[in-house]
Specification:
Blueprint (H helix, E strand, L loop, with lengths): L1 H18 L4 H11 L9 H26 L4 H24 L2 H21 L14 H15 L4 H11 L4 H25 L5 H21 L5 H24 L1
Helix pairs in contact: 1-2, 1-9, 2-3, 3-8, 3-9, 4-6, 4-8, 5-10, 6-7, 7-8
Main location: membrane
Organism: Deinococcus rhizophilus
Family: Belongs to the 4-toluene sulfonate uptake permease (TSUP) (TC 2.A.102) family.
Length: 249
Amino acid sequence: MTLAVIAVGLLAGILGAILGLGGGVVVVPALEFVLPLFGRDISISQAVAVSQIGVLAVGLSGAASYLQQGLVRARTGYLLSPYTILGGAVGSFLGLVLPARAVATVFALLLLYSAYNLLRGLRRVEVERAPSRLVPPAMTFAGVMSGLLGIGGGTVQVPVLNLLAGVPIRQAIATSTFIMGLTAVGNALVYHAGGLLDVRLAAGVALGVLIGARAGAGLQSRIPAAQLKLFFSVLLIFTAGQLLWKYWS
């Protein structure tokens, strides 16, 4: 089971590095479907709690690399992180009290949204411009999604930083990763206090994610992105359907 958990983290890290998706999009449904094969039942809230540690590992590792490259807007990160940390705390609390069916439904919608963005391609702004007043509430919403669903928040944060805050895309990704690590600390503490965080599973996922992210960075230029995006989009749609069937049938 431990090897399977590490393998889940590896897959999440590789796909996250290649496609720019948060590892939680892979980790949460994978744990839901893989662990029962080993006789271990896990609720979606427990899977979200474990995913927070994977997000923390990616955030710390990625932020260190981006800081060395000078891509992180540290001032922007420090100014916006209180909104995501507050939203993350709210989202984590909702993850503790909401019915599993509600969390699974929101997660399935997120998977479908991610598949849509992969197939369509996100709009990007490369020229810096003045930030919108919608940035603080949008970043708070990103924090809520991060806490509730165990995702890094980049699925929401990167478009917000790029399209609303006017930060060029590469710096938006780097700053989002920086903020992600700060937010995941608070999220993990809330889930740990709620008794849902399995430290052993979390350590396995974090180890796999760190190794997979490095491997994915090396594979990014060798794999045809269009084919990989199509395959993963189909996988996301299938997984969303499985989650909805499991919790609504």
